[in-house]
Amino acid sequence: MKRMLWKFHGGLHLPGHKTLSNQTPIQAAPLPDFLVFPLRQHIGETAVPVVKVGDKVLKGQVIAKAKGYVSVPVHASSSGTVVAIEARPVPHPSGMFADCIVMQTDGADQWIDLNPVIDYPTLSQSALRNKLREAGIVGLGGAGFPTFIKVNPGSQLPIETLVINGAECEPYITCDDLLMRERSKGIISGIEILQHLVQAKEVLIAIEDNKPEAIRMMQQAASNNTLIRVVPIPTVYPTGGEKQLIRVLTGKEIPSKKLPADIGVICVNPGTAYAIHRAIHHGEPLISRIVTLTGRALTNPGNLETLIGTPVKDLITSAGGETEQIDRLLMGGPMMGIALNTDNIPVIKTTNCLLAAAPDELSTPSTAQPCIRCGDCARACPADLLPQQLYWFARSEEMQQAESYHLFDCIECGCCEAVCPSQIPLVQYYRFAKSDILEAERERLQADKARLRHEAREARVIRLENEHQAKLAEKKARLAKARTSDDSKKDEIAAAIARVKAKKSNQETEP
Amino acid sequence: MILSILVLTALASAFGLLLGYAAVRFRVEGDPLVDQIDALLPQTQCGQCGYPGCKPYATAIANGEADINQCPPGGEAGIQKLADLLGVEAKPLNPENGEEKDKLVAIIIEQDCIGCTLCIQACPVDAILGAAKKMHTVIEAECTGCELCVEPCPVDCIKMVPIRTGLPDWKWPKPRVPVESRL
Ligand code: SF4
Ligand code: SF4
Ligand code: SF4
Questions:
Q1: Inter-CA distances, A445 with A195, B43, B94, Å
Q2: A-chain residues near B142 (CB < 8 A)
Q3: Which residues of B touch A98 (CB under 8 A)?
Q4: B18 falls in which pLDDT band (50, 70, 90)?
Q5: What angle do CA A398, A401, A402 make, to 5 degrees?
Q6: Residue whose CA is at the smallest distance from ligand 2 atom 8
Q7: How far apart are CA A394 and CA B115, in angstroms?
Q8: What are phi and psi of B141, to 5 degrees?
Q9: What is the rounded distance in angstroms from the CA atom of residue B38 to the CA atom of residue B85?
Q10: How do A202-208 and A161-166 pair as beta strands?
């Protein structure tokens, strides 16, 4: 029976460029000499190192522990020696440095003792979630949100639908495609663990119809689980956006500022499901992932099973890339990836693709024309926004207006920018506006705190001053009292003297 | 007829009393305009505006005694916000009050500190921790960068340094792609 599907507003049909990298099986990337682990690999708190320079570590050992709730530990992805804990360039649009643990590998690739969970359904759900946390599992498809939190919907609605997001709609990227083709059994086993955790009524594996092989393999692997359905979906960018995918599968809209869980849906990437399978059934923490190496500047594009922490430079070399031929290097795809200005940075848990583009491969507009209000952007926007309005507000820094036009619902998919005849870098404006608003919010909180502290101090100063004055007044009063009692004593003495004198004179006059 | 007049009078006086009571009971403390202005000031409490803190400056603006361009930490953006609130033209920062610069925080060079407590007395937000003849230190997260502690230090061991920015507070810059003129 064919399942009914819905459509989302806008979207684009983009050239896929997928065959560049999906023609060869997944291969293991060579073991690099050095591995670099940024302490902050995803949203949430930065992890705290628990090793020091000179320590020997084994593959899978925790080298930085989680701090706070929205945080997971970092594990060494091979065995070797810690050689530095210092600031290094990290994958981030700022090109900034951040603290990393650097280790030199010893080539033995020796694991710690692994403790698979023998019979996971006997564990409590919270114990099982904790296993996911200890294994360092975060969402491998997007911003890397810790999975143990995502599968804990708490007091919210029961979860109706568990969606496995195998859409992989962005051009060039094929890591999920290859994973689904080659490791479908592992993914299904991970999905079963997830299903046990969230108790969804149905599981939908959504795959774009440009990946027939992946669809077939997943269908085969899921054939004896009646809860799980593989749903081929039309190939439209960005159907892999969480809100867009849920709309396509269920027809439901997620209200502004709400999460899928608020309407009873949880969305997980197949790579994450596979990592969960490895963590529970093999006891392996998340120390590797599949990375797509693609772009016409590489002679050997393909998908590499890569240790987290592997320098990008090493991967590019093993894919037959030469730095000179690379015009632009992106981490992620051409629509949503970030431009790298160095290859001296490591692969992190959320690195799905490295795109090494030849000079004529990607368009790089260098000048923009004024907006002609054609409205093409609004027609393309999958979030149903008014991109030209957002652009005007961001440009004139009317941030409140931008917010009231739902700036924060923008998923930064780049559709508007791709169709804009004036080649305005629209998404850059939205990112600027968003971070400006967030910064203003941080500053406001800071100012509120300073105001409270200042007022508390003022109150204290006044209180102390009053107390001081009160003490002074009291002392004065005591002194004054002492003085008056002195006076009365003097009077008494004088009176006594007078009495004695009077007596004497009386005595003298008596005889 | 009489009954309805009585009922209406009774109702009117009951609600009158209720409103009167509410006006007394729930009276808004303070001057809302002062608070609105104060909410836009950066709360550095540095006194560069010529008043002993942000709230006194806010009061002075509300009373028409001070201009809106006297707060250097608030800078151009702050002046713009004040202008919007008060419905007046924005104007450049008055150079007599100082110049707008990036936010700094104080650090105490701890080995030089003699524990005199003078800086503690100067700090408007209690951001310095210490006691007589004990080493002092600045709680960085609470420091507003007002520089009031620098001057009183007899051994010059307080320095103002740029605030450390990490990845979480990095900001996307405004795009600077040239827009071609259509003329
Ligand atoms: S597509 Fe570009 S030119 Fe057209 S309305 Fe949108 S921003 Fe303006
Ligand atoms: S980048 Fe934002 S505004 Fe532009 S099409 Fe995508 S969701 Fe809409
Ligand atoms: S520590 Fe110094 S600069 Fe910081 S708020 Fe206190 S007095 Fe101002």
A1: 40, 11, 27
A2: 449-450, 453
A3: 166-167
A4: confident
A5: 85
A6: A381
A7: 50
A8: -70, -20
A9: 11
A10: parallel
What are the chain B neighbours of A458 within 8 Å (beta carbons)?
A: 53
Report the sign of the C-alpha dihedral through residues B143, B149, B150, B154, in that order. negative
Mean pLDDT of successive 10-residue segments in chain A (511 residues)? 83 92 93 94 86 95 91 94 93 88 94 91 90 93 87 76 94 95 95 92 94 94 91 93 93 87 91 96 95 93 95 92 83 91 92 91 79 94 94 91 93 94 92 92 90 91 92 90 73 78 68 45
Q: Tell me which ligand sits closest to the C-alpha of residue A425.
A: 1
Name the one residue in this structure whose structure tokens are 């692994």: A114
Residue A238: which of A145, A336, A309, A100 has the closest Cα? A336
The strand pairing partners of A232, in sequence order, are A207
Q: Which amino acid is at A258?
A: K
Backbone angles phi, psi at A358, to 5 degrees: -75, 165
C-alpha span between A249 and A6 (Å, rounded): 6
Provide the residue type at A341 as one letter.
Answer: N
Nearest alpha carbon to residue A382 among A6, A17, A7: A7
Which residue from B137, B143, B157 has its CB within 8 A of the most atoms of ligand 3, so it is best to mutate? Answer: B143
Question: For the whole model, what pTM was predicted?
Answer: 0.81
Specify burial of residue B141 (Cβ count, 10 A radius: 0-12, 13-18, 19+): exposed
Q: Which CATH class is domain B32-97?
A: mainly alpha
More confident position, B25 or A412 = A412
From the CA of A427, the nearest ligand is 2
Contacts of B89 (CB under 8 A, 6+ apart): B83
Distance A417 CA to ligand 2 centre (A): 8
Delimit the CATH 1.10.15.40 region(s) of chain B. 32-97
- Residue A406 burial (10 A CB sphere; 0-12, 13-18, 19+): middle
C-alpha B86: how far from its chain's center?
Answer: 17
Query: CATH top-level class for B104-164?
Result: alpha beta
Q: Is the pLDDT of residue B96 over 50?
A: yes
Q: CA-CA distance, A63 to A285, in Å (whole number)?
A: 12
Crossing angle of the two packed helices A387-395 and A426-509, in degrees rounded to 10: 50
Tokens linked to A359: 């000079």
In contact, A151 and A139? CB cutoff 8 Å: no
3-class secondary structure, B73: coil
Percent of chain A as helix, strand, coil, to the nearest 5: 40, 20, 45
Question: Which pLDDT does position A365 carry in this prediction?
Answer: 66
Contact predicate B119/B152, CB 8 Å? yes
> Which among A132, A163, A151, A112 is positioned nearest to A275, based on CA atoms?
A132
Ligand 3 site residues, Cβ closer than 6 angstroms: B 106, 122-123, 125, 127-128, 138, 143-149
Domains of chain A, each with CATH number or no CATH: 121-286 (3.40.50.11540), 365-511 (no CATH)
- Answer for the pair A191, A243: CB distance below 8 angstroms, yes or no: no
Residues 6+ apart with CB under 8 A from A329: A312, A316, A339, A340, A343, A354, A355, A356, A357
For residue A329, the Cα-to-chain-centroid distance in whole angstroms is 22
For the beta carbon of residue A315, count every other beta carbon within 10 angstroms.
Answer: 24
